[in-house]
């Protein structure tokens, strides 16, 4: 488990025959878990706080699961979202990732595969309360003590240990996949990172979906960097991959 506070999962599934074994499997892993059977109830549960990851069915009785996902992201939810659905088409898969899902499993799926993906997402998206409590995170504020030559607030800073990113004094709200993509590009700043490398490094070996999910993630990340006036930009090298470029602010 991550830290002393139990990881909390929310299962959004209206079919009792699917929800019951899923609930038992997640509880056996040691997670705190809540189950709701409708979209509005899911939105309310996440808004109440404390949910680290959502297992979201698309076929809900009151609203489409894609709309639930879209609303959660628009309201600032930064935890993991795994879509569970009987819809097998690639279009649904891509649309789900476009609206902010981190992963996608088509029914029927094995519980072992689902739990593996849950663990992978939780490793990549540590909760803020856990991260801030970790002793190794405390030095993150140290740059201001480096001497007069170091600015108090650098224009851009990425902290891998804390999984946090700042543009100026503004912290960017990134999903797990957005952070992983940015961290990999930042590691090779100025160089082109191929699409194949990004897919292999950011999406695990169980991912067999369309690479359009990478384009959707890049698009959201690019917009967030622009909105925060970050001094970096995501450049596209057509047919090859992407490059993180410095774009100093105008004087």
Automatic annotation (TrEMBL):
Residue intervals of the Response regulatory domain: 8-122
Feature: DNA-binding region: 148-246
GO MF assignments: DNA binding
Entry-linked Pfam families: Response_reg (PF00072), Trans_reg_C (PF00486)
CDD domains reported for this sequence: trans_reg_C (cd00383)
UniProtKB keywords: DNA-binding, Phosphoprotein, Two-component regulatory system
Modified sites of kind 4-aspartylphosphate: 57
The keyword Ubl conjugation belongs to this UniProt entry's keyword annotation: no
Chain segments annotated as coiled-coil in the UniProt record: none
Highest taxon in the source lineage: Bacteria
Ranges where the OmpR/PhoB-type domain occurs: 148-246
Record-linked SMART domains: REC, Trans_reg_C
Protein name: DNA-binding response regulator
Source organism (scientific name): Nocardioides aromaticivorans
């Amino acid at each position: 488990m991550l830290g002393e506070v139990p990881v909390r999962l929310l299962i959004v599934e209206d079919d009792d025959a699917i929800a019951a074994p899923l609930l038992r499997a997640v509880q056996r892993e040691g997670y705190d878990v809540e189950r709701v059977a409708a979209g509005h109830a899911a939105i309310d549960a996440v808004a109440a706080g404390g949910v680290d990851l959502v297992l979201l069915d698309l076929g809900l009785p009151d609203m489409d699961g894609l709309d639930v996902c879209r609303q959660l992201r628009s309201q600032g939810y930064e935890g993991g979202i795994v879509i569970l659905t009987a819809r097998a088409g690639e279009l649904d898969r891509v649309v789900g990732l476009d609206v902010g899902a981190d992963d996608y499993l088509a029914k029927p799926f094995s519980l072992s595969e689902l739990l593996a993906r849950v663990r992978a997402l939780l490793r990549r998206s540590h909760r803020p309360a856990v991260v801030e409590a970790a002793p190794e995170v405390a030095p993150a504020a140290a740059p201001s003590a480096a001497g007069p030559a170091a600015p108090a607030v650098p224009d851009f800073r990425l902290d891998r240990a804390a999984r946090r990113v700042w543009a100026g004094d503004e912290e960017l709200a990134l999903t797990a996949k957005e952070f992983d993509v940015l961290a990999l590009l930042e590691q090779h700043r100025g160089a082109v990172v191929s699409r194949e490398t990004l897919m292999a490094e950011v999406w695990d070996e169980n991912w067999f979906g369309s690479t359009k999910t990478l384009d959707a993630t890049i698009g959201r990340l690019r917009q967030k960097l622009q909105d925060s006036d970050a001094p970096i930009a995501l450049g596209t090298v057509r047919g090859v991959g992407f490059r993180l470029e410095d774009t100093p602010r105008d004087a």
